[in-house]
Description:
Number of strands: 8
Catalytic activity: 2-deoxy-D-ribose 5-phosphate = D-glyceraldehyde 3-phosphate + acetaldehyde
CATH architecture: Alpha-Beta Barrel
CATH class: Alpha Beta
Pfam families: DeoC
GO molecular function, one term: deoxyribose-phosphate aldolase activity
Order of helices and strands: EHEHEHEHHEHEHEHEH
Largest sheet: 8 strands, parallel, barrel
Helix content: 40-55%
CATH superfamily: Aldolase class I
Protein name: Deoxyribose-phosphate aldolase
Radius of gyration: 16 Å
Number of domains: 1
Strand order of the largest sheet: 1-2-3-4-5-6-7-8
EC number: 4.1.2.4
Number of helices: 9
Amino acid sequence: MKQLGSYIDHTLLKATATKDDIIQLCNEAKQYQFQSVCVNSCYASLALKELKNSEVKVCCVIGFPLGAMSTLAKVAETKQAIKDGADEIDMVLNIGLLKSKDFDAVWKDIEAVKKSMPNNTLKVILETCYLEELEIIKASELAIQSGADFIKTSTGFGTGGATIHDVNLMKSVAKGQVKIKASGGIKDYKTALEYINLGVERLGTSSGIAIVTGETSTDNNY
């Protein structure tokens, strides 16, 4: 197994996150050698500055947390985030359109974002807590069809986070074509290891330090 920290997107997405909080997040990511920091797009340039001369990537969320804004808005936010220093983008698919069975609109939404960032990693958030099994399967297929590099379980802002069952469903569709990111509710080493052993390539969590130090986080976020 790779070093545990390299699986972790060290995450801070709450509305009250300050500049000082983001700077602390970046310093922690450097200290524990996390794969990336995951922040709202307004902090992309600050994160880039703080992570200069490190291996830690900048990841930004797009269309977060509802996925319900226009495709044009998602594309514009993506382009700005990349311009400001984001290496990776985690976008929320349009859940309402998926549930409406407007599958063309869902994949065109994802595809438009991917086309605006062809050389960067795109993770598509399915928000599995709101989806039936068949919807998780269909969402995974649409994301893969649209050029996603990862399919991701959750925003951490829904009614639930990652589950082993949902990840197994996603894995059955991915079949190695894309990678899987589990996020939401992963707060300790044991849980993190369960997902890694399933084949998950990335973990989204605000409890990264607790995970790599073998503690259990009391953080209520993500």
